[in-house]
Amino acid sequence: MSRAAFDDLRQRLAEIQDLWKTAALLSWDQQVMMPSGGAAIRAEQLATVGRIAHTKFISADIGRLLEDLRGFGEHHDYDSFEASLIRVATRDWEKASKVPPDLRAEMSRSAALANPVWVAARRDNDFASFLPVLRKNLDLRKRYIDCFEVGDEPYDIVLDDYERGMKTAEVRRIFDYVKEHQSPLVKEVAEQTQVEKREKTFDIEAQKIFELEVVREFGFSSDSWRLDPTVHPFASGTGVTDIRITTRYFTDGLEGLFGTMHEFGHGLYEHQVDPSLERSPLARGTSLGLHESQSRMWENMVGRSLPFWRRFFPRAQELFGDALAGHDADSWYREVNAVEPSLIRVEADEATYNLHIILRFELEQAMLADEFPLEQLPEEWNRRMWEYLGIEVPNDTTGVLQDVHWSSGSIGYFPTYALGNLISAQIWERITAELPDLPSAIEAGDFAPLRDWLRENLHRHGRKFTPTETLERVVGTSQIDPEPYVRYLREKLAGIYGIAA
Amino acid sequence: MSRAAFDDLRQRLAEIQDLWKTAALLSWDQQVMMPSGGAAIRAEQLATVGRIAHTKFISADIGRLLEDLRGFGEHHDYDSFEASLIRVATRDWEKASKVPPDLRAEMSRSAALANPVWVAARRDNDFASFLPVLRKNLDLRKRYIDCFEVGDEPYDIVLDDYERGMKTAEVRRIFDYVKEHQSPLVKEVAEQTQVEKREKTFDIEAQKIFELEVVREFGFSSDSWRLDPTVHPFASGTGVTDIRITTRYFTDGLEGLFGTMHEFGHGLYEHQVDPSLERSPLARGTSLGLHESQSRMWENMVGRSLPFWRRFFPRAQELFGDALAGHDADSWYREVNAVEPSLIRVEADEATYNLHIILRFELEQAMLADEFPLEQLPEEWNRRMWEYLGIEVPNDTTGVLQDVHWSSGSIGYFPTYALGNLISAQIWERITAELPDLPSAIEAGDFAPLRDWLRENLHRHGRKFTPTETLERVVGTSQIDPEPYVRYLREKLAGIYGIAA
């Protein structure tokens, strides 16, 4: 009887998962393949598929099945498919069904309408024109928060959407440590002799060849992956063996390559989820923070490491010729790790990136709490940029208007970027302890040990466990600990800048 | 009150149309972009989206709305959006709701399972291994027919799925005329001096450049179209300004180019549907026959015409060099119109193509009527190939196993290919009468008059009218008339082979 109910639930959730993956394809295609003329009708198709998936999920039928199956779930092992599916779906259902469909629709509509306003405001350096839609998004987000019982802080509700179970107070504690230790590090580096950079030009066709060679060694294969150019890089896909990453190219540097390695990290997490979880809500990474730990690990711990460049520098020199003249693997390693406080988050280096996030985390809480009139947001932004990064913001285009997130109402998302950085170092310490030969494997182009370790310890679980449960399985503690990241940074920068290790 | 009901209906149908267009994208992506690893889950996604669309459409709610809106529809002009939507949706609903979902699911499943069996059977020239799945598909198709009241002939039911309102007896009458007049024409040509062909090699990159230049002059533009390579060419898309055509390339000839022009014709029909019909079931071509008339017109009446090659031959010669050495526009025009009875339908020329179809039309009726044991199908096939085309079939791979259609249970589809050929000539006679300067416009690369004529007289109506109503609007008669096609052929071949005009 319960088995039949479970099969019923599983089938319903599979159908819903099919719809979400279909929506992912609609969105991937929109950004990568669609002729511009398709924009208006694609918005309708995305809205329709999303609405049907959501309506089916929050149905009373599923609520009843989950209720009936509570005992069935508890009689199975905690990490069994059955118990995990019921547990995760119950949690999702309880959160999703608290939000009236009308509010959800209004949030989507408002985000869609705000996007072009933000694009124009950023282009024209005109914060005032963005202000009304920002206010609208913020009001909707407050109404969204009001749908739930607020425990400690309202921000907990939105944070939980991206990093399940994480508390604002916990993030604050972590970020305070980061501010205390990472800010001085940036200042120490600034007092050293800087890495000299000269202007270069990297041929785009050569970049395409190079990045494919790199991700192929990482584990990309054309039977399960695609790599395409796009305006804003992202990772997507329709299943564990259909992973799609996107990238972009610049002629003045290899930021595109690092972006490709970043998206590979996201893609690999999805690719290595246990195939038996396919067509269930368990078939993806467990949180944005854990996901970002994977992208940052491949981008930074691997892609900005000395063993990596010892492996790939000769080939890069072949392909890019003049651009790398006068460099060797070691000097190039220093250049790609140069620390330089800058205005734009997405271009920030490993040492300054988290500080960009902390600024946003603080502003988001202040906005939700109406701590200052929204008109003052640019000043609040600029003040913190000076305080944390020692940078003067010349205009709002390169300041408060730089990110897309607030135009889509995505408040609570930013912290996961920094948490991902911190987690990546926790995991990396564990990996390098368990795989002492990893640096030489990387230098030999053998990425299988790293890939396998990640599959076995992290990826295969998908969403079976909460972020903290997952972290505990991977590194032995459920706490996000900022110390390993600061240690990692200090050690790396000691080698490059000669600061104290 | 009725207006509110109509808006409700319209909104429900819009949602269903979004789902069908989403399914079209899932399928386009599957054939053009998807890594092979996505196959299994893509089948689930397609099944889910199709099932939801179908279930929503045949719902009692929609049946009730259609019933309630009958009077509302009748109070609007016949060609108004309101009357047309209600009329067409009622007709679709009545047919769709007669088929039990289980039978529909079994037909889909059986088709999916039969496909790989057919692929292997064709590869191995092993009809016996295909026989059981063919029998299964045929049985299901008979059960499908049993869902309806059969009027004159069971074949009417399946024919109507592809060419609404068309009767088997009518097709037979038309095809008898074709057999009587087209078969002798082929024999007459066979007695003349043949067009001499020598082996050539066409560079594939040059083909890609050339076909894009051609379809751009036709009206392809990258803001509303895509063109991609695939194994089996087709036209698809997600809306009137997102049209996707696909093609393939051969090094030994320009079949790929003709295929591209063919798919352009399909694409243009969809592209020029009145945008006000978007997100409704009216937003597509009215039947497969009318659709094929458009693809064949651009492929043959335009692409295999002398004015076309006078326009494009110089550029072709630039691009393909040696392959066209010794040719001029006139001699090349003769070569691309050479008549040569051959084994394979998709490679057949304009004079023999319809005969391939007639053979299949006759066999399909015989199979549904159990006129011979299914084991004898190859013999029945081969006998007709000899009779109609004077060709001996060396094996089933190039005979009865060549087409995919029967493996997917698509019985009743084939006739629309030949009907499309015939309709294309009816329309072409009308166009050339109304646009006497068309040949010189084509020679000057000006395709706007043709495109505009087609939009105004045919394309914009979408599915508002039945195929016969549509035909009547375009050419002044609701009858498919085979005479213009035979006239067109005889005239063209008179110029090339010197037979009597």
Folded structure, characterized:
The structure is a homodimer of 501-residue chains. Chain A has 501 residues and is mostly helical. Chain A has one domain: Orthogonal Bundle (Neurolysin, domain 3). In chain A, 63% of the residues lie in helices and 3% in strands. Chain A has 21 helices and 3 strands. In chain A, strands 1-3-2 form a 3-stranded mixed sheet. In chain A, α10 packs antiparallel against α13 and α17 (415-434) packs across α21 (483-497). Chain A is globular. Chain A starts with a helix and ends with a helix. The model of chain A has no long low-confidence stretch (mean pLDDT 95). Chains A and B meet through α1 and α2 of A and α1 and α2 of B.
Main sheet summary of chain A = 3 strands, mixed
Q: Unreliable segments of chain A (pLDDT under 50, ≥5 consecutive)?
A: none
Mean pLDDT of chain A: 95
- The CATH architecture of chain A would be Orthogonal Bundle
How many strands of chain A? Answer: 3
Explain the layout of strands and helices.
The structure is a homodimer of 501-residue chains.
Chain A lengths: L1 H31 L6 H19 L2 H9 L1 H5 L6 H16 L4 H24 L2 H20 L8 H8 L5 H23 L13 H15 L6 E5 L5 E5 L2 E6 L7 H17 L16 H15 L3 H15 L8 H8 L16 H16 L8 H13 L25 H20 L3 H6 L4 H10 L9 H9 L7 H15 L4
Parallel strand pairs in A: 1-3
Antiparallel strand pairs in A: 2-3
What keywords describe this structure?
homodimer; 501 residues; mainly alpha; Neurolysin, domain 3; 3-stranded mixed sheet; 21 helices; 63% helix
